[in-house]
What does this fold into?
Amino acid sequence: MPAKTEHLSTPRQRALKVSAGILGGFILAVAIHLTIGALVEDKGPVVITSAYSTFFLWVALMVLAFWFKNGWRAWGVYLLGTALCAGIIYWAL
Amino acid sequence: MKLKGLPQRVYNVYFHTHTVAGIAISFGLFIIFYCGAFSLFRDDIYRWENPEARFETPRTVDLDRAMAAIQAAEPGLAETAQLTFRLPDEKNPYLRFFGAVYRDDSCEKTKRIRGVVKTEENYAFTNYENPKTTLSNTIYRLHYLGQLPAGLYLSGFIAVFFLFASVTGVMIHWRNIVTKFYAFTVRGKWKQIWANAHTVLGMIGLPFQIIYAVTGALFGLLFLLLLPSAFVLFGGDTNKVLATVRPDAALSTDKNAPFSAYPSIQAPYQHTVATFPGYHITSVRLRNYGREDGLMTINLDDEQTISGTGDISYALSTGEVLGKTDPRHKTYTQSVLSAVTKLHFASFGGLLLRIIYFVLAMITCFMILSGVLLWRAARDNKRYTDRQKRFHHRVTKGYLAICLGLFPATALIFIANKAIPLHWMGRATYVNAIFFLGRLGLFAAGLFWNDFRRLNKNYLRIGGVLALLVPLANGLVTGDWFWRAFARQQWYVGSVDLAWLMTGLAALTLVWLLPSAGAAPPPRQRGAAAPKRGTTSVRGRHKVAPTVYQRCSTWFGWSKSEVLGD
It folds into this structure.
């Protein structure tokens, strides 16, 4: 029943995926919420929704990070996404 | 019915993350769910906890009179700090006060004070700096690991990883989730039993667990979310973020506002009572009391609906309403935080809802436990070296000792609460010491019980006996035996005793029903080393024990042929 080890990746790749999921995932989840908050006029509902939806998105991104075969790619996608959000926020505010 | 599962590689990867995340958080998660389940009743047990509070809740309170009593008892009340009253309710008959006093004449440093106003004793104010009893609060603090440094944040992270484990758990079990649900059985190999218990109970409890993972994460880690919003969207002003949710956070007071006469706080209170009939007033908060711009915010709750909370703010000098959240007409923004709170504290459906929550929390505890036992049982084969197996055994044993030892320890703190005389100074410290030392002792004892079945039965036995002592302790010390309490309609006192009595009987019955050996996997052979002194070699007592079914049938006088009809 335990997972078959031949499908699991190297410790280095694992560290990358774990960090991408927890840290990168959190940053991207918050950045996406901030982008929506920056784009709409009425920020109250967005801020209060983010109090729970951030956790769903964060965990989804954590899960997604392990779907990648390459941990570097996971980090790359998350950082690119964050940069994109940052650009939109900069332009909108 | 088979659902489409994950691709091979991804399935194995998620299986592994689920295992690792699950094992890593399980220790904390069990404590959180177990103590949380008890904390659902932390108000209900107040009268049991504190015998001095066993009187009828006053129907009306006079806040002005209470304030005068507090000012007489605590000179130098800090008006600029927030002063809060929590009003008496059905469960707690005291008018509770939280505030601050100035430390010296310069009026710069303040010291927090808290206490109760005893309305039945001429509104006498008693400072609760060293409260006589903290039983439910101790368990409540343990629920969010409050006794550890940064425990609240730690429990918040545990909640996030719990959500992660729930999601990956559903993903890996997806393929067989329907078939397994209908094919639930408690027979077969132990690995199969634990796997069944884990997946089916996890499935039944899933909505409940998702609610708790998210709301728990929110309470622990709200700062992680509010700070970025405050900095990016509101120019660094956290008050503005709060103001979108609570109108009273937008009202400001000036520290240097001129003094005024102490205004009446009873008048706005009565105005609220008249404006919102049918609502319970939970708390009254004052800011700049005794200054010209003094504010008063009153919080109310209907305790029946998920968004039934509201508040109303008054200017103290004029009595003018400055802002309010009408619980009958709330916007989405105003509803979310109170809904989240009510979902977490189960404060929207009365006692029955809390009992259902309690049962679901216990199911979750069992789901967590069975996950760890499954983890070990799945590794009990030739693919692992003896060294690895000993490690798995040690981890599981330590884990069981932490988790199962909580039950006797909980009964112990209830007994300690009655055994330490009420007039002792600092008695709460002794009670807590008994709880934590007892817990440590129970944990240490568990490490010597190498057979898991024996460990489980020992804890059940100790817990069962202690549970039976709880009503005895209360009866002997306070004289309020539960039948007398019920006769006097002190439901909150009697039902705590009765619940412990039934728990104790149930635990001891379980001990009696559980076979002493047989179907359980043998404990890990500790390498080539001889068994330690005090540990029974399982091979030595391999007599055939009656099964649960057999014991039940003798108890009820059935015979197998009668039941099966052959």
In short: Helices of chain A lie at 11-39, 43-67, 71-92. Chain A has one domain: 15-92.
